[in-house]
Write a structure and sequence with these properties.
four-stranded antiparallel sheet; mainly beta; 3 helices; about 250 residues
């Protein structure tokens, strides 16, 4: 308990009123707060072993929600976890064979990121119940959203002034993943400054199972979301219904 710094609380529920306190660096603490046992006992569930690229970030060289998130599925039957592995452009280990190849690649490999999701069934047994679920690298994400108005593709293309939304997506800095409680959608935050349209902050939705872009939306740049974004999924969106009103 003394070594945990929890920043997220999730209600699992059930007869014993199970609650999960999430430390995105070290693991999840589970407690049956309505159980009869006193004093209350905590079950410590470590997170999966981090990606090698994140070893240098542990335990607190950056805020953990920069690359990680944990959520409970809507039906309270699964714990969902995601970790991003982000890498900057790197110099090539071996020199190109020709001058033209050197000009083309500029002696560096491009930066990028990979996201891996894990799941664990509820009720929880032990940390060995973590199972890898999906893995997606930004270069493999399809950008054809099926939107007839092409709003998302047009928004991404406007960042670079090019028509290639896929190439633009690969160059966007993305972090702060937020897991959907319903499906395989993960929401990422991106902040960039384009010479075409100035500063722009986006939330980008990606289906990590199908490796497909699902949408993008602008944020209000005056609210400084990226200083410490704190987004969470909720059930509110399932309750409102659209009401058609006739105008006089």
């Amino acid at each position: 308990m003394l070594y945990h710094k929890t920043a997220k609380t999730l209600a699992i529920g059930g007869e014993r009123g199970t609650v999960a306190w999430v430390d995105l660096w070290r693991g999840i603490l589970l407690c049956d707060v309505l159980g009869e046992e006193r004093p209350l006992r905590f079950q410590d569930i470590p997170l999966p072993i981090p990606a090698r690229g994140n070893w240098g970030r542990l335990p607190e060289q950056c805020e953990p929600n920069y690359i990680r998130d944990v959520a409970i599925s809507r039906h309270k039957d699964t714990i969902k976890y995601i970790e991003m592995d982000i890498w900057p452009p790197r110099e090539l280990d071996t020199p190109p064979d020709s001058y033209l190849e050197w000009v083309r690649c500029k002696s560096t490999s491009p930066g990028g990121w990979k996201a891996t999701t894990w799941s664990m069934p509820i009720p929880v047994g032990s940390f060995t119940d973590w199972q890898p679920d999906c893995e997606v690298e930004v270069k493999d994400i399809a950008t054809d959203t099926g939107d007839p108005d092409r709003c998302t593709n047009n928004l991404l293309s406007s960042l670079s002034g090019r028509r290639d939304a896929a190439l633009t997506l690969q160059k966007l800095p993305m972090a702060y993943p937020t897991i959907s409680i319903d499906d395989d959608i993960v929401y990422f935050v991106s902040c960039t400054k384009s010479r075409h349209i100035g500063k722009l902050e986006l939330v980008i939705a990606v289906d990590v199972r199908r490796k497909a872009l699902r949408g993008a939306a602008k944020l209000d740049v005056h609210k400084n979301f990226v200083i410490m974004p704190a987004f969470c999924t909720c059930e509110t969106c399932t309750y409102p219904t659209k009401i058609n009103t006739a105008s006089n």
